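Review form for a predicted model. The reviewer records the input and the model, then writes brief findings.
Reviewer: anonymous (R2)
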Amino acid sequence: MISFVRGILDSVSEEGLIIDVNGLGFLVRTTERTIKEFYPQEGKEVKLYTYFHVREDDRALYGFNNKKELSIFRMLITVNGVGPKGGLSILNTLPPDELYSAVLLNDSKAISKANGIGVKTAQKIIIELKDKMAKEDADFSDITSFSNDDHVMDEVAEALTSLGYSNTAALRAIQKVEDKENMTVEQLLKAALKNI
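Model under review:
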């Protein structure tokens, strides 16, 4: 198995990055975010943590900036119906922290925005990965739901979801508001809408 690839970035394409490792060019499929991060850095040294996918008709190397993203990708492809392309599609739509929060908050709407992922597959991802992700060492303190004492924040979150925003997007928007504890529902709703 290939755990990581370190070499000189030869070129960037829509499929991924071509990395020159001692004269061998490895095509490493990756997320759009990673491609944008490395473009246009041809000629510089890069390191990606990788997963080598092998099937009868396909062999492909998938690469990620960090071990956390690789770990999430590996979890995603264990779900029946989510292959490597689906895993990349989900990570293109939701960065790791947002995916964690979507799974933990049962936000299938956010996950199903990924290209090729329907609502049923998103629900299956939540069911199969919720316990695994909860055991991970990720920090969810900034994306948790509110306590029972925070009625104003709960009302605003409910109002935002009724407007069509996902639960994850609503909670993130509210968390970004400064001095939210001292606001009325109307004030907080206006401030949170600016963050979406």
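Findings: The chain has a mean pLDDT of 83.
Further findings: Residues 140 and 174 are 15 Å apart (CA to CA).
Recommendation: see findings above.
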